[in-house]
């Protein structure tokens, strides 16, 4: 394995499968099978899951809801997704811990950096939920922060497309994919693959980003093994 410790960033929409809302048990189970396979190879995995399948803070703010309230609701949605993914992973016989930035002791462990690292060292998957507990920060930024805190070697950003393109490939048939691209070019061209603040944090700390297509079976394993999957931002 090329990477020993990975932070895998998943969107909430991944949990919904073909639906636009909620959780698709079959899709979550299929995802858990792939993630568990990588964990069994000895890779230490931290996961951050969005909450877009339940609630989108920015969209709610546009409907005249207070942004802070909307973002807190979005954070709680990520906890729902984290618990669903934990359940699926433990059915694959992989020990998993959910750690939340917002304390809720009856549901999950509070996020404590040293405890999270200890879980990883013991072979447990750690799912980081509730973002950073602060409004105005996306799950991309939360994933970057957690990756840096646990000393992950790479952020693996799972998407619906093959990697980073010069324009939206879902709208433009002539979009060109980048096999590799520097952080600064992502920021300068506003490619939108991740929040600018998250990309800047990765640049400033030398943390690599791999953007790849999650819908292709086996891509998580290929990425962990260092195969040329998706786009490498470095």
Annotation keywords:
234 residues; alpha/beta; Carbamate kinase; 9-stranded mixed beta sheet; two-stranded antiparallel sheet; 9 helices; 11 strands; 19% strand; globular
Notes on the protein architecture:
By secondary structure, the protein is of the alpha/beta class. It has a single domain, classed as 3-Layer(aba) Sandwich (Carbamate kinase). 40% of the residues lie in helices and 19% in strands. It is built from 9 helices and 11 strands. The protein has helices at 12-16, 25-40, 57-62, 67-91, 113-121, 139-149, 183-188, 196-205, 219-224, and strands at residues 5-10, 44-49, 96-100, 109-110, 125-129, 154-159, 164-165, 177-178, 180-181, 208-213, 231-233. The strands form 2 sheets. A 9-stranded mixed β-sheet has the order 4-3-5-2-1-6-10-11-9, with helices on both faces. Helix 2 packs across helix 4 (67-91) and helix 6 (139-149) packs parallel to helix 8 (196-205). 44% of the residues are buried.
What is this structure's SSE topology?
Elements: E1 5-10, H1 12-16, H2 25-40, E2 44-49, H3 57-62, H4 67-91, E3 96-100, E4 109-110, H5 113-121, E5 125-129, H6 139-149, E6 154-159, E7 164-165, E8 177-178, E9 180-181, H7 183-188, H8 196-205, E10 208-213, H9 219-224, E11 231-233
Parallel strand pairs: 1-2, 1-6, 2-5, 3-4, 3-5, 6-10, 9-11
Antiparallel strand pairs: 7-8, 10-11
Helix pairs in contact: 2-4, 6-8
SSE arrangement, N to C: EHHEHHEEHEHEEEEHHEHE
What oligomeric arrangement do these chains adopt? Answer: single chain
Global Rg: 17 Å
SSE-based structural type: alpha/beta
Task: Report the uncertain regions.
Answer: none
Q: How far apart lie the N and C ends?
A: 19 Å
Secondary structure: helix percent: 40-55%
Largest beta sheet: strand ordering: 4-3-5-2-1-6-10-11-9
Number of helices: 9
Largest sheet: 9 strands, mixed
Q: Give the total of beta strands.
A: 11
Number of separate domains = 1
CATH-derived architecture? 3-Layer(aba) Sandwich
CATH class: Alpha Beta
